[in-house]
Amino acid sequence: MTAEVVGLRDGRAEAVAFQPLDGVPAGCPAVLASSEAGLPVGDGWLGRVVDPLGRPLDGLGPLPAGPRFRPVRTAAPEAGRRRRLGPRLDLGVRALDAFATCRRGQRLGLFAASGVGKSTLLSMLAAGADCDVAVLALVGERGRELREFIEDDLGPEGMRRSVVVCATSDSTALMRREAAYAAMAVAEHFADSGKQVLLLMDSVTRFALALREIGLAAGEPPATRGYTPGVFAELPRLLERAGPRGEGCAGAITGLFTVLVEGDDHDEPVADAVRGILDGHVVLDRSIGERGRYPAVDVLRSLSRTVPGCLLPGERALAKRARRLLAVQAEMADLVRLGAYRAGTDPAVDEALRLAPRIEAVLAQGKGERGTVEGAFAALAAAMEDDDGGAD
């Protein structure tokens, strides 16, 4: 049985096992086997499903070994030698392409409570985003969803360019934690060879829960909502590894990380910490999904910090006007519902009430639809053609 030393206390080395401890009696000898874990990642891993220790889960036989072992715990590229973000990236989802436009090497968070559509949105991104390689990290996910995700969402074509790293919810805390590190190491392998990599991790919250479980077992004191201090130290060490690589390497890791907020509280500790590390956030709102509009992206609460560097002036003006119209419509929704607003009282409100439903129709997108940034703004411009005077 493999274990990892996670702390030193009272003259003892404390270890946590990668497997359940069923059948292990007290007094078993422990042997120090190695000092650093690594994965023999290679291009032959494309199209495969592996566990965090690099063992195949798809029944397709042994994995071909790469030229060398790649450590799963490494430092992020030096900030002063890191390349800048690349051009904008087609994510294939209109709501994101228009209102949270992403650049190559950027890191976005997808924030939502359970049952709001994070996994479905992730599958749309995996199938529709413009990338050379997709690496999917399923951390603490339901075991039954793995084959559904691979066969229904990715399909044979999407799987050919993908590597899936999976640790299900019944795995030990070390395996769930290691899934995030292993997926990042796989993404770094392909990015260092010059490829544009899309890393999709679901979810950072379950990674943090695994860290908390390990930290408490090692004797760390519980702090904010029971999370140990080591959780908030480890989050940036993982997330900062995504992004552009160092000078001389054209590859980049564009990361999209889901965050499972507890009880729709978007200010809970993990969500707050991750939002401060990443380059933007996308909020999924339960009430939008209940109205039947999917993906349930709340564009008024979502933003990409790199938008000024990747949109044309006309596109920025279009997105700004659309946000304003949606904000006015949301502000007046209760008055309209109660019949307290009379048409013609305020031209700005009349315009918002007329055009906001058209914008909402653009944001709605079926699971099998694909889009581009240019297509998203073209659809938005067509929806906002004002019959009573034209666009601003």
From TrEMBL:
Subcellular location as annotated:
Cytoplasm
Q: Does the keyword Mitochondrion apply?
A: no
Q: Which Gene3D superfamilies match?
A: 3.40.50.12240
What is catalysed by this protein? Answer: ATP + H2O + cellular proteinSide 1 = ADP + phosphate + cellular proteinSide 2
Cited PROSITE patterns? ATPASE_ALPHA_BETA
Domain of life of the native organism:
Bacteria
Alphabetical keyword list? ATP-binding, Cell projection, Cilium, Cytoplasm, Flagellum, Nucleotide-binding, Protein transport, Translocase, Transport
What region holds the AAA+ ATPase domain?
A: 104-289
Please give one Pfam family short name. Answer: ATP-synt_ab
- Does the keyword section mention Cytoplasm? yes
Q: Which InterPro entries match?
A: AAA+_ATPase, ATPase_a/bsu_AS, ATPase_alpha/beta_chains, ATPase_F1/V1/A1_a/bsu_nucl-bd, ATPase_T3SS_FliI/YscN, P-loop_NTPase, T3SS_ATPase_C
According to UniProt, the name of this protein is Flagellar protein export ATPase FliI
The organism named in the record is: Craurococcus roseus
Q: What is the lineage of its organism?
A: Bacteria, Pseudomonadati, Pseudomonadota, Alphaproteobacteria, Acetobacterales
User: Which gene name does the record give?
Assistant: fliI
